[in-house]
């Protein structure tokens, strides 16, 4: 199980500062997992080393996304979330108030099978096959994958069926979606951290940048709105001027008030 692109991270990784020591279960596998930005699709935000015997929950708890903080500030934080890896939804249902996000998807797959099949076909078939289909008609009997739903905290990385380098999904706070890639997999070696409590190890963390106004994309954001019907995003960031222009009329009265607004502080 040693990958060809063997990379030693040991030099870059410091031992965990956590006092607790939990022995690694041998033989152990180390996986390198990448997390991508929710809107800037090709920007990697984090990279981790996780152990094969760790559960998906342990990774989820280390994923940092500003949407979590925004929703927390807005008093609308939702503990739900899932990973979609191959055909399996791994739902985080630890919190009693957590929602099974995969349920409406399964309902849709059941109730709108034709629509789902069409979407699946356009995802899986290339341009050539689509052209062939236009000329000779459908030749293959396309089937939707047999999707399943499982509890996230019941699943360890070593129980997963996955392909190295394939794009999977992490979804949280309703519809904040991140691509996840398992980039590498190898056996643990002597230079690795051998304290289970130290994992997942953060190998890379994108530095937070200045949040710009979503409207003019020039000035620093000073306000953030949630569930704002005229905003292009949810949450939406505004500079002082753009916020005023969108939300206030000529007589300086608020045009609508069925949304939440907060002062935005840069970290
Ligand atoms: Zn997110
Ligand atoms: Zn602006």
TrEMBL record:
Gene Ontology MF: a single term: RNA polymerase III type 3 promoter sequence-specific DNA binding
Sorted UniProt keywords: DNA-binding, Nucleus, Transcription, Transcription regulation
Subcellular localization, as worded in the UniProt entry: Nucleus
InterPro entries in alphabetical order: snRNA-activating_su3
Pfam families (UniProt xref): SNAPC3
Gene Ontology CC, one term: nucleus
GO BP annotations listed: snRNA transcription by RNA polymerase II; snRNA transcription by RNA polymerase III
PANTHER family assigned to the protein according to its UniProt record, in alphabetical order: SNRNA-ACTIVATING PROTEIN COMPLEX SUBUNIT 3
Assigned protein family: Belongs to the SNAPC3/SRD2 family.
Full protein name: snRNA-activating protein complex subunit 3
Organism listed in the record: Carya illinoinensis
């Amino acid at each position: 199980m040693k990958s060809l692109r063997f990379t030693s991270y040991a030099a870059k990784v410091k031992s965990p500062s956590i006092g607790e020591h939990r022995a690694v279960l041998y033989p152990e596998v180390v996986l390198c997992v990448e997390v991508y930005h929710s809107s800037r699709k090709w920007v990697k935000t984090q990279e981790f080393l996780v152990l094969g015997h760790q559960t998906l929950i342990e990774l989820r708890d280390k994923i940092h996304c500003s949407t979590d903080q925004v929703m927390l500030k807005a008093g609308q934080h939702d503990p739900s979330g899932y990973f979609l890896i191959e055909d399996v939804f791994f739902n985080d249902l630890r919190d009693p108030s957590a929602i099974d996000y995969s349920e409406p998807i399964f309902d849709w797959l059941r109730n709108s099978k034709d629509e789902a099949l069409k979407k699946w076909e356009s995802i899986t078939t290339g341009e050539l096959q689509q052209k062939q289909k236009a000329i000779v008609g459908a030749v293959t009997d396309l089937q939707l994958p047999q999707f399943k739903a499982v509890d996230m905290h019941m699943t360890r990385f070593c129980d997963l069926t996955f392909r190295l380098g394939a794009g999977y999904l992490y979804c949280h706070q309703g519809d904040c979606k991140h691509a996840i890639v398992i980039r590498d997999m190898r056996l643990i070696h002597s230079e690795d951290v051998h304290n289970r409590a130290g994992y997942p190890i953060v190998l890379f963390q994108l530095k937070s940048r200045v949040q710009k106004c979503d409207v003019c994309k020039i000035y620093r954001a000073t306000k953030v709105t949630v569930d704002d019907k005229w905003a292009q995003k949810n949450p939406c960031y505004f500079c002082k001027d753009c916020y005023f222009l969108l939300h206030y009329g000529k007589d300086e009265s608020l045009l609508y008030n069925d949304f939440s607004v907060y002062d935005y502080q840069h970290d």
